[in-house]
């Protein structure tokens, strides 16, 4: 489909189009690319995004071209109508060429009417292009949402793994004869703190955290 072709428009049109992007979209995409990277992108969705982006670019160019073309056609119709009126007036003054000029004016009138009908048909096409643009924006929104969900999944998975490793370290923790542990034990004794109880409570907190993270991973 030509709307998905990378050769549909040239470099100058692409530069013009990029210059007309909104500041908010540009900043948003820049921040997303700078701070949020999907580590394992799915090739299927990468290809889908590339094709939809090309379609959006080409639709945007097509829409602008149709608007410009219709505007110029409308201007031409107005000029031809003025010319038709002038030829009709000239036919009334030049009686020797009245029939010839009248025929010419009639042809101009029919041609102008055909051009206006063509403009109406092009306007219908503009509506279709607008619908395609809405479709493109819907696809773009779905793909962005899908990427965000994958980012959330990867971040939550990392957090779950970090919590699991922390729990395993706590479970495997064994006291040694270091000065730091000796001082810590003495301080806990003075405070009346039960080290075993603290360890159990910490493991319970880590278990609860893992359950919460696991819930959000699988919803």
TrEMBL record:
Residues 24-189 form the Sorting nexin/Vps5-like C-terminal domain. GO terms for biological process: autophagy of mitochondrion; endocytic recycling; piecemeal microautophagy of the nucleus; protein transport; reticulophagy. GO terms for cellular component: early endosome; phagophore assembly site. The keyword Cell inner membrane does not apply. It is found in: Endomembrane system. InterPro entries: AH/BAR_dom_sf (IPR027267), Vps5_C (IPR015404). The keyword Membrane applies. This is Sorting nexin-4. It comes from Rhizopus microsporus.
